[in-house]
Here is the input.
Amino acid sequence: ANFYFRIGSYCVLCVVFSAVACVVCVLCHGGRTVRNMSIIKRFVRIFKYFYGIQFETYGEEKLHDDKPCVIISNHQSILDMMGLMEVLPRNCIQIAKRELFYMGPVGLIMYLGGVIFINRKRTSAAMSAMEEVGNTLVQENLKVWIYPEGTRNESYDLLPFKKGAFYLAVQAQVPVIPVVYSSFSSFYHPEKKIFTSGKIKVEVLDPIKTEGLTVTDIPKLLETCHSVMRETFFRLSNKPNENGTNGPTSQPMQ
Ligand SMILES: CCCCC/C=C\C/C=C\CCCCCCCC(=O)SCCNC(=O)CCNC(=O)[C@H](O)C(C)(C)COP(=O)(O)OP(=O)(O)OC[C@H]1O[C@@H](n2cnc3c(N)ncnc32)[C@H](O)[C@@H]1OP(=O)(O)O
Ligand SMILES: CCCCCCCC/C=C\CCCCCCCC(=O)OC[C@@H](O)COP(=O)(O)O
Here is the structure.
């Protein structure tokens, strides 16, 4: 019962907070702009206190370079939204599945924040939507946050990556910055109906340049990102990987 109460309250918070945030965003900025993301961020960062979730971030300063880039991160559940807003840099929009747009105030606040909605079932439409982002990324000095797994994944591993984020980065010739969240499985497990409090480690990895890369380099770029994120995911989640090493590489943020 506690699981359903906590998940239900999370959804209710999303609906209520997004309705309020819509009013604040329209009053402050008048309409759809990435600047609304800083308002949304302030609201969402309150959620962690309701659920006793702590974040331990490493390397967050790597996201503060005021330049366009593609940020990619692993995606475990709707709780990821808290982790996203914990480290979201300025001028950063997200790519989201179109279904979220139809979720009442949640969809509206995402629209107001500049979120790009894609239809995962229509690859060509999704690709052209992302191509459009690639065309404006540099001149609008935008960052874009993409979940390359393309869906939530509660397995104790990373799914294979979709290619869209890498096409976008190579098309715009901007770096890819991987962000890895440790596994939630110690405090959040839908099958076992577990949703308690816990700590999430977040590590921002070094930017991966795409200058000079072309479409033919995408499989290798994807593979490089996938393996470095998978190794980090195992390390942050204390899941012994092939050579059994654990523990973060950089110092915790002060
Ligand atoms: C105030 C309180 C608020 C309360 C709460 C409310 C809101 C919070 C506010 C904001 C938070 C927002 C949070 C948003 C989170 C949303 C999370 C999600 O929705 S995740 C799901 C959606 N995301 C994705 O799917 C992104 C990853 N997917 C992709 O990038 C895919 O590549 C794709 C573009 C969708 C295409 O999908 P497909 O399945 O076809 O995959 P492939 O990548 O395998 O591509 C197939 C094929 O096409 C070629 N390809 C791909 N892209 C391109 C391209 N751009 N140009 C040319 N060709 C391309 C690719 O090479 C493949 O070909 P081949 O197999 O021959 O190699
Ligand atoms: C007054 C009208 C109310 C309308 C009903 C709204 C109810 C929805 C309430 C809260 C939903 C929480 C969504 C918050 C945004 C979280 C973003 C996110 O991380 O979702 C991604 C996830 O989805 C991916 O789905 P898939 O696993 O790819 O498939």
Observations:
- The CA atoms of residues 92 and 203 lie 18 Å apart.
- Helices lie at 2-29, 36-44, 47-51, 80-87, 105-112, 123-136, 164-172, 218-236.
- Confidence is low (pLDDT under 50) at residues 247-254.
- The pocket of LBKI3ST6 (ligand 1) is lined by residues 14, 17-18, 21, 40, 43-44, 75, 81, 84, 94-97, 100, 106, 109-110, 113, 115, 118, 120, 123, 126-127, 130-131, 146-148, 150-151, 162-165, 167 (CB under 6 Å).
